[in-house]
Design goal:
Number of strands: 10
Radius of gyration: 22 Å
Helix content: 40-55%
Bound molecules: flavin-adenine dinucleotide
Distance between the termini: 35 Å
Strand order of the largest sheet: 1-4-5-8
Order of helices and strands: HHHHHHHEEEEEEEEHEEHHHHH
Number of helices: 13
Largest sheet: 4 strands, mixed
Strand content: 5-15%
Structural class: alpha+beta
Shape: globular
């Protein structure tokens, strides 16, 4: 098997341009606002950042070319998204922040031509934001999607949707929602979910409070959303009725990997800050960076960065071949979410008191990367899925040999 890890020249050029744009334009703004995008101006600030990204020729690397993007596949996205993630505001600037980036991917694959015109085109161009509404308060859908309780029932000319969601990223100010609702079966049963598209100003959609989570870098917060007798036409169905869980996988596999790409950039920034600090700071007759235990932290960071990149490359390769890559995404997501947190945590440790202060970006990076071990599937759920596949295969082999 021939392995070629070199990047096409135009992708390398885009990654380099993105890196320069982030360092020159975006990082100073992140530092000025302590990584808090609402404090920086929310949507107005997003629009300014995105115009600057367009001017720099780095906007929408993921979006299909016919929607104004660079049309990059998963392997080619990795270096560009990592450069964007070097600043907490970088993904928003390039229009590749969650959930919009994952929604562009899913709409490009599943939406019909009319839906692409109404929803995908303005989203890819950065004219609107979107939200993906799946998670529900107990006893509804969380790690276990089969608990889905929001219901859509047939009504005159379409569907009537009732249910409560929470943790919905970007809901406040979103232009439209992708809603996961049960169209058949009962909570606890697999299958029976459908995705619906609805403009945010449709009567029956109400955005509630923002959940006060650790992170501050995503526009529109993480909100409660109530669907109260929301009436949508038949044309609001995304794809086919009862295939919602299947479509969620189209979105989730790649979305997990693009999260890894972006957060790897953030972790690399943390590491760079720490290395610069220990190369300068003196103690015990040496530079901190000359001390063995500090060097161990530096080496462990390098190992975690390299291993995360390697898993990412392998998984993106599978995804670009059109494979579901379910096991590979579980392995890469779990390892990366934990490795990225370790990298940032060691970086804080190396910087001493400054590491947990507002004088360096490390404390804010730490609060941003921690939730990644929970969303897109908690580590425990992925480990469970990985182990189930292995044990299942072993049982089948045993049966076959008997
Ligand atoms: C910052 C943030 C943004 C989010 N954005 C969105 C969004 O835009 N749209 C959306 O729909 N949702 C979103 N979510 C919700 C996210 O997808 C859920 O939090 C996640 O799926 C876990 O569900 P839960 O919170 O209900 O936890 P639960 O399902 O209650 O699980 C709690 C814990 O139990 C353990 N656990 C669960 N199952 C197992 C298992 N099988 N084996 C072992 N241990 C297990 C895990 O440790 C898990 O963390 C977001 C969450 C956060 C924190």
């Amino acid at each position: 098997m021939a392995i070629d890890l070199s990047l096409p020249p135009e992708v390398q050029a885009l990654a380099d341009r993105t890196g320069r744009f982030i360092r020159d334009h975006v990082l100073p703004l992140e530092d000025a606002h302590d990584g808090d995008i609402a404090a920086a101006g929310g949507d107005r600030f997003r629009e300014q950042l995105q115009q600057a990204a367009r001017d720099a020729g780095v906007f929408a690397p993921h979006a299909p070319v016919e929607y104004g993007g660079h049309g990059l596949g998963m392997c080619d996205r990795a270096p560009v998204f990592e450069e964007a993630g070097y600043s907490l505001f970088g993904p928003t600037a390039l229009n590749i922040a969650a959930p919009d980036e994952g929604n562009v991917h899913m709409l490009a694959h599943i939406a019909n031509p009319e839906q692409k015109l109404q929803y995908l085109a303005p989203l890819a161009h950065g004219e609107v934001r979107s939200a993906f509404a799946m998670t529900e308060p107990a006893p509804g859908a969380g790690s276990d999607p089969s608990a889905l309780a929001t219901r859509a029932v047939r009504a005159e000319g379409g569907w009537r949707i009732n249910g409560t969601k929470y943790f919905i990223t970007g809901a406040d100010g979103a232009g439209f929602f992708i809603i996961m609702a049960r169209t058949s079966g009962e909570p606890g049963q697999r299958g029976g979910a459908t995705m619906f598209l609805a403009p945010a100003d449709t009567p029956g959609i109400r955005v509630g409070r923002h959940l006060d989570t650790l992170d501050r870098s995503m526009v529109g917060g993480h909100c409660e959303v109530f669907f109260e007798d929301l009436l949508v036409p038949e044309s609001a169905v995304l794809g086919e009725v009862d295939r919602g869980f299947e479509y969620a996988q189209v979105r989730l596999g790649p979305a997990r990997m693009t999260h890894v790409m972006r957060w790897l950039g953030a972790a690399r920034r943390g590491h760079d800050v720490a290395v610069a600090h220990v190369a300068r700071r003196q103690g015990f007759g040496a530079r901190l960076g000359d001390l063995g235990m500090v060097q161990k932290m530096i080496a462990d960071n390098e190992i975690d960065i390299a291993a995360t990149r390697a898993l990412l490359t392998r998984t993106c390769w599978e995804l670009d071949r059109g494979e579901p890559a379910a096991n590979a995404t579980s392995i890469a997501k779990t390892f990366a979410a934990e490795a990225i947190f370790r990298i940032v945590d060691r970086s804080m440790q190396m910087c001493g008191g400054l590491g947990v202060s507002g004088d360096l970006p490390l404390a804010r990076l730490s609060r941003e990367v921690r939730p990644f071990r929970i969303y897109d599937g908690p580590s425990e759920v992925h480990r469970w899925a990985i182990a189930k596949r292995v044990v299942g295969a072993a049982k089948r082999a045993l049966r076959d040999s008997e």
